[in-house]
TrEMBL record:
Gene3D superfamilies: Endonuclease/exonuclease/phosphatase (3.60.10.10). This is Endonuclease/exonuclease/phosphatase domain-containing protein.
Length: 262
């Protein structure tokens, strides 16, 4: 956790919106991830410290202003482990807050994320990041994605900064792709299992290949084709037709303005 904290502090700079997500192997239960000051200390701070220092100490109040509960919920009834205490210390030192059990469909829930008994996968964010959160929930367990962990699903809403067009950028060439359909996930697994020998051959290639970049790229390309073929066979094809592509490409041209549409 100390290494994560060092890396985190080296990257945040002057930003006020940042997030960490993943498996921290930390059971925190209902431990508080913020420090609420009592009235006596508040009075001392208000009279003897500058505004910047007060903003750091009272950062947790941004949750209240954003209608986020200070107290989070957790269905993990196990005892907090050592990683859990370290994670809480990390949060309190860096003004970070656990989103699980506080927002979205997981608000007042705190659904477990591993083996249906422990909560060890977290979205951890700064107080100002709550303002751009639109959705958050813990998906039901799916063995396609993990051995024991549930997916964390969330959406954010932020302003997009449009940069100058890169003329060297290569547009989508209309490659046929497949859209994931949960109802046919078993079919996808079945079709992928039919390629088991091909995948084993690729594993052997990995063991025997050199460190040359083109060798590795070739193996990855073959692996991508295996998954793509299984997906197309399971879900069918989806892609833009030529007319849609031409219109989209034309609309992306710098010279194409609203006057051209009139």
């Amino acid at each position: 956790m100390e290494e994560i904290e060092r890396e985190f502090l080296s990257f945040i700079g002057n930003n006020d919106k940042y997030a960490l997500i993943g498996d921290f192997n930390a059971r925190t239960g209902n431990l508080s991830d913020y420090v609420e000051l009592d009235d006596d200390i508040v009075e001392i701070i208000n009279n003897g410290y500058d505004e910047d220092f007060r903003e750091i100490l009272f950062d947790y109040k941004n949750l209240i202003y954003s209608n986020i509960p200070l107290k989070r919920c957790s269905q993990d009834k196990g005892r907090p482990n050592s990683f859990g205490y370290k994670l809480i210390d990390f949060c309190t030192r860096c003004n970070l807050y656990i989103a699980n059990g506080r927002i979205g469909q997981d608000r007042d829930v705190g659904k477990t994320t591993s083996n249906e008994c422990s909560l060890i996968d977290y979205l951890i964010i700064s107080s100002n990041f709550f303002k751009v959160m639109n959705e958050f929930e813990i998906d039901d367990f799916n063995p396609l994605y993990s051995d024991v962990h549930n997916l964390l699903h969330f959406c954010i809403s932020m302003n997009v900064i449009h940069k100058e067009k890169d003329n060297n950028y290569q547009r989508d060439n209309g490659t046929i792709r497949s859209k994931w359909k949960m109802s046919k996930s078993d079919k996808f697994v079945e079709n992928l299992n039919m390629k088991e020998e091909n995948i084993k051959d690729l594993c052997n290639e990995v063991d025997n290949c050199s460190s040359e970049e083109h060798d590795i790229d070739g193996i990855l390309s073959k692996l991508e084709n295996i998954f793509s073929e299984a997906a197309i066979k399971s879900f069918g094809k989806s892609g833009r037709n030529n007319e849609q592509k031409e219109k989209s490409d034309r609309n992306n041209e710098i010279w194409f303005t609203k006057l051209c549409d009139e």
